[in-house]
Amino acid sequence: MGMDKQQVLAFIKDVGIVPVIRTPSAESAVRTIEAIYAGGIRAAEITMTVPGAVKALEKVADQFGDKIVLGAGTVLDPETARICMLAGAEFFVTPCLKLSTIEMARRYGKVIIPGALTPTEVLTAWEAGADIVKVFPCGNVGGPAYIKALKAPLPQIELIPTGGVNLQTAGEFLKAGACAVAVGAELVDAKTIKEGKYEVFEQRARQFLEVIARAREEMKAAREEAKAAK
Prior knowledge:
3-stranded parallel β-sheet, 50% helix
């Protein structure tokens, strides 16, 4: 049962998008994940701000098993990380850098994606054992241009931007050097949940996957062109 850490990491990078599920109830979280799964996205992060978030994790883990890579988001401390781990979460995302949470995930061989913003925080997170560093809030400090600026001196660090990722910018973030993107309200918004229009999320999931595929094609073409020009 379950994937090992390297498989989870490879999977996240392959999918290229982590939907951040921040919903008003555990039930709406599960229904949202069903919709984005139908839209082709095989990863999801349920945030701890969802009432009954741990129940939602358990339910999704039971329902989808290995068909989806499930994460816990907004994990503020190691205790929460451990509870989510036991509920079936395979990866852990934090909004800010807390070394003890990284330690907890590493102790059990789980993928940890801590949040950081400044070059100092990004490097500190990486040195402490982050598998990928989440750059948050990225949109507020320059978006793709900020990722590009971080990658110049720190090319070895895997980055996932959060905040400011939408259908217009997702491809730009990948081209700037992000290994994947995390998308919140631009994919899953409260208004659509309130209206019960879950099929909208399926449609948006498809659109995001198209944008990512297109960006990757363009990056590949650019690489081949550069190679040919040598």
